[in-house]
Amino acid sequence: MQQLIDQSKERVEFVWIAGYNISGMKLYGDGEAPDSIIGKEYYDYLTVTQNLTIGNPEYANGLWQICVGIPVLDDEGAVVFYLKLQI
Length: 87
Fold this sequence. Notes:
There is one protein chain. This protein has 87 residues and is an alpha+beta fold. Helices cover 21% and strands 37% of the residues. It has 2 helices and 7 strands, in the order H-E-E-H-E-E-E-E-E. The strands form 2 sheets. A 5-stranded antiparallel β-sheet has the order 2-1-7-6-3, with helices on one face. A two-stranded antiparallel ribbon has the order 4-5. Strand 4 and strand 5 (63-65) form a beta hairpin. 13% of the residues are buried.
């Protein structure tokens, strides 16, 4: 089991990372990142909860991937943009 865990740890990496405006359109980030996250379940959760969200696992390009969305807030607690990581 430890060998399996060690092998799995070696495969965890960022697939891509990007910042999105509050409307769900990409502001900046990796070229592999989609131009929009509108219609994604985790984006809907982000807009409703204004809290960290984790999407359903996806298998793509030979890797299991998980979406993590994080709202980035200003000093007054308002959402400035969403940081989206595909790991």
